[in-house]
TrEMBL record:
It comes from Nonomuraea antimicrobica. It comes from the Bacteria. InterPro entries: RlpA-like_sf. This is Rare lipoprotein A (RlpA)-like double-psi beta-barrel.
Amino acid sequence: MARSKSPDPPADLLGPVTGEVSWFCCGTAWGPCSSTGKGACGTCNSGSLQHAWPNTSDACWAITRPDSCGVSLSRRTCGFRHQITSLCGGGSVVTAIADCGPQTDLFCGERSCCGATCASNRLIDLTPAAYSQIASLSSGLRPVEISTA
């Protein structure tokens, strides 16, 4: 018998999760980014240590659907802080939620590796300033562990 997935977002993140991280541009021009919108929270800036989270609201959850990839992520709202630790060398950065995303359901099963260390499913997008704390922007995707800060 197939397991059905709950239509409701999970209530809490019980522990760290592993997944892929990517980066995105928002706010004022910075590094490789031109000026763009300020994100779902209205505070997003490419030069700040911020991130997009796929479960910031019911509307965000309806778009991103990480549960479609078999991943449960807690509801966290604007300003909540996560610690993102690279599985490729161990560097970490603490960032605050400033936007909704990534659209995880479009990347189910996507996998990034460094050597034999891999993670699947794009779960978090960092601003370029935050991503550059744990990896080169040219790498595009990296496996990470995400925990509460």
